[in-house]
């Protein structure tokens, strides 16, 4: 269902054996409620790459349910949220249903004003899915007393001989780095923007297509200018 100010969309993606699928979603700043649910199945040797860029809405919620169903299947997820208002929520659930599968997640949030950014990521390793390899990283920058960032990575491991890790951290801009840039004559607003861009960088650089990556960087820079 979709109208001008409301969208509730479900998408099914099937990645066949040894196939590769790249998926980029750009949610611009608006006053809409947007809820999107993705169901993804990846067969043996297949690779699913996805990047999600959110810039603020009344409510922007993305849910991903990903099943790695064959040996050598991979999922690489990344995302950025740069928010001065509104709510951006990303929820992921990656299931390693088969052994010798790999998943990677890198999500970065920057929130100011009255914005709220949320990341909930669950990785499940099924019984017998030995040699699964998973890593989750979620970090946030809070730029105001009324902004909020909630990060919740989670692991459920029911197999042996797996390599799984996760981490989450929320903080402010590093004061020493900001002082260093200011001491070299860089105006404070520009220095803050440079630090925020560096913070977000590793997530945006996950986008392999150069033209799409440049487009997302353009949107990120415009959003950061409003936060500086």
Kindly describe this structure.
With 228 residues, this protein is an alpha/beta fold. It has one domain. Helix content is 19%, strand content 50%. It has three helices and twelve strands, in the order E-E-E-E-E-E-E-E-E-E-E-E-H-H-H. A six-stranded parallel sheet has the order 1-3-5-7-9-11, with no helix packed on it. The protein has a six-stranded parallel sheet with strand order 2-4-6-8-10-12, covered by helices on one side. Helix 1 crosses helix 2. The longest helix is centred in the C-terminal third of the chain and has 18 residues, at 210-227. The protein is globular, with a radius of gyration of 18 Å. The two termini are 36 Å apart. The model has no long low-confidence stretch (mean pLDDT 92).
Uncertain spans: none
Biggest pleated-sheet summary: 6 strands, parallel
Instruction: Quote the beta fraction.
Output: over 45%
The 3D shape can be described as globular
Number of helices, where a helix is a run of at least 4 consecutive DSSP H or I residues: 3
Lateral strand order in the biggest sheet: 1-3-5-7-9-11
SSE layout and pairings?
Elements: E1 6-15, E2 20-27, E3 33-42, E4 47-54, E5 59-68, E6 74-83, E7 87-96, E8 102-111, E9 116-125, E10 133-142, E11 148-157, E12 163-171, H1 175-183, H2 188-204, H3 210-227
Parallel strand pairs: 1-3, 2-4, 3-5, 4-6, 5-7, 6-8, 7-9, 8-10, 9-11, 10-12
Helix pairs in contact: 1-2, 2-3
Which characteristics define this entry?
228 residues, alpha/beta, six-stranded parallel sheet, 3 helices, globular
């Amino acid at each position: 269902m979709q109208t001008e100010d409301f969208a509730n969309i479900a998408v099914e993606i099937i990645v066949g054996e040894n196939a590769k699928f790249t998926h980029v979603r750009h949610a611009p700043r608006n006053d809409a409620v947007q809820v999107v649910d993705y169901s993804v199945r990846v067969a043996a040797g297949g690779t699913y790459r996805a990047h999600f860029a959110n810039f603020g809405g009344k409510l922007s919620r993305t849910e991903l349910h990903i099943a790695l169903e064959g040996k050598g299947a991979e999922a690489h997820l990344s995302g950025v949220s740069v928010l001065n208002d509104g709510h951006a929520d990303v929820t992921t659930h990656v299931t390693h249903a088969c052994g010798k599968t790999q998943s990677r997640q890198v999500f970065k949030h920057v929130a100011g004003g009255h914005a709220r950014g949320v990341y909930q990521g669950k990785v499940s390793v099924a019984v017998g899915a030995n040699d699964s390899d998973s890593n989750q990283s979620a970090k946030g920058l809070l730029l105001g007393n009324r902004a909020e960032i909630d990060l919740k990575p989670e692991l459920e491991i029911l197999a042996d001989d797996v390599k799984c890790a996760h981490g989450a951290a929320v903080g402010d801009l590093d004061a020493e780095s900001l002082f260093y840039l200011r001491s070299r004559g860089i105006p404070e607003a520009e220095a803050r923007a440079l630090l925020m861009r560096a913070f977000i960088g590793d997530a945006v650089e996950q986008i392999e297509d150069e033209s799409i990556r440049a487009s997302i960087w353009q949107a990120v820079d415009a959003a950061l200018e409003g936060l500086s």
